[in-house]
User: What shape does this take?
Amino acid sequence: MVSLDEELAKVQRQLHVLQWRARDITERALHEALRRTELPGFTGEAVQKIIDQVLEKLEESPFQMTNYASKTSGAAIVRSKTSPSWIGSGRVFWQSLPLVAYMRPPEVILEPDNHPGNCWPFPGSQGHVFIKLPVAVFPTAVTINHGVPAAAYHADSISSAPKDFAVYGLQAEDDEKGTLLGEFIFTPGQAPGQTFQLKNEHSGFIKYVRLQVLSNWGHRDYTCVYQFRLHGDPAHDGDTRGKLSA
Assistant: This one.
């Protein structure tokens, strides 16, 4: 017997998927319409500003999925299985201005405050973070937030953003491999928060998740992760979706 909470969660996921499909269709339509419309005084920058404003409105949705990688909900970083933080000069730059005068810990990616500069930097272009979830979750999607509005992107903020990344689900802390839930590309210059649907055909409930950043957009010294969210369904007694496959 499916509970009301499960039905509501299912409807919420469907609405979120429809929201992102509508966002993608709207962005394509706006680009094409504004490209064909030759208005005096409309530069490429002005056209992009209009598109960004429309997309920001689409982001203001009341149908927000639960984040199970939130510090307030009980998620925690497993430091022994997480890349070290970047130390360097002790500063993270945005638009050539120093914003962080001290090293930020990986726990910052579990918090909602992701204003420009409030990110977790790790050395180079490849790194990973291992997260213990507050409850067993059947994963459906992840959201990466880079914390910089599209209109404010600068070479520094773009180059330090994650590019290629993979997400793994695990049932135990000592699981060295985990199950690949998907590989994706984060594209800076679009919405600061981008949601990616996971591959769930062969997955089950997970207790840990590993975010593996495979590359960034060109920064040689560090990569900055602002916020990582995991969405899905919590385990219930009698659920038949089973254990995570290897």
In short: Residues 3 and 237 are 11 Å apart (CA to CA). The chain has three helices and eleven strands. The first strand starts at residue 76 and ends at 77. The radius of gyration is 19 Å.
